[in-house]
Amino acid sequence: MPHDGLTPVQRYVLVRLMINADALPNKLFGSLKQEKRIDLVDRKLLVVTGRPMSLDLTQQGHDRAVAELGAEPPERAGTAGEALYAALEFFRRFLEHTGIEPKDLFRLRLATERLVVATEPMPDQVAEAIDLGQRIRAAYSDLSPRPGDYVALAALRAALAGVPGPEVDAALIDLNRAPDVHLVPESNQKALTAEQRAAAVSIGNQHKHLLAIGL
Questions:
Q1: What domains can you pick out in the chain, each with its CATH number?
Q2: Which of 178, 195, 135, 148 is nearest to 23 (CA)?
Q3: Who's near 140: CB < 8 A, 6+ residues apart?
Q4: How far apart (Å, rounded) are the C-alpha atoms in residues 206 and 213?
Q5: Is 203 in a helix, a strand, or coil?
Q6: What is the distance between the alpha carbons of residues 112 and 187, in angstroms, rounded to a whole number?
Q7: Distances in Å between the alpha carbon of 92 and those of 15, 42, 102, 177?
Q8: Which of 34, 136, 166, 193 is deepest in the core (most CB within 10 A)?
Q9: This model's pTM is above 0.70
Q10: DSSP track, 39-72
Q11: Beta strands 114-117; 108-111: pairing state
C-alpha cells in the first residue's frame, strides 16, 4: 500500500470510480472537498470534464485504486469503511484465484436494459474493434476544430454511415477506457433532438451524447 498521504475520502473516491469503470457526476462525491479534488488532479490520478462536472480516473488513478484491493482500512473508517475493505479483500483473493485483471472485473455495462459482460474476443474481432476505434478517432479529428472539443455522437455516427449502431456502441465503450477519451451527457437535456437522443451510447447506466478526444 503506497504511503502517499491520500485522505480516506480521496481513497474512497478512487475506489468508487474504479468499480464504476466510467466517469461519475461530481455531485455524487459531496464529501470530496474542492482542494482534495484538485489535489487528485494535480497527482494525475483524476480528470475533471464536462458541464455538469464529471470525475474519471486516469490510468495512473486506476492503478492507484487497484492498490486499495486488499489494503488496510483507513483509521476511523467506521462500519461502512470496514465493510468496503472486507469486500475489496474478497475481490483481491478472487482476482488472484482466477487470474482476471482488475480492469476486466469491473467491465460490466448496462446497455439498452440488458446486462452486457465483456468477454475475451476472438483475434479477428480484436482486429475489427481496433480498426473501428481508429475510424472513430479519425472521424472525430475531421469533425472537431481542435483536440479536446466536444463533438455530438449524432454527427460522429453520420460520419460513420454504414457501420451498424451496436458496433459503434461497442467501439465507443472500449475507447472510453482510454485516458484521452471522454464521453459525457449533454448538460441541457431539454435541448436534445430526437436524433441526438437516438445517437447516445449507454455507459454505466447513463446516456452519453458528446465525445472529446485529446483532453
A1: 8-105 (1.10.10), 120-213 (no CATH)
A2: 178
A3: 151, 156, 211, 213
A4: 19
A5: strand
A6: 21
A7: 13, 28, 9, 21
A8: 136
A9: no
A10: HHHHTTSEEEETTTTEEEE-HHHHHHHHTTTTPP
A11: antiparallel
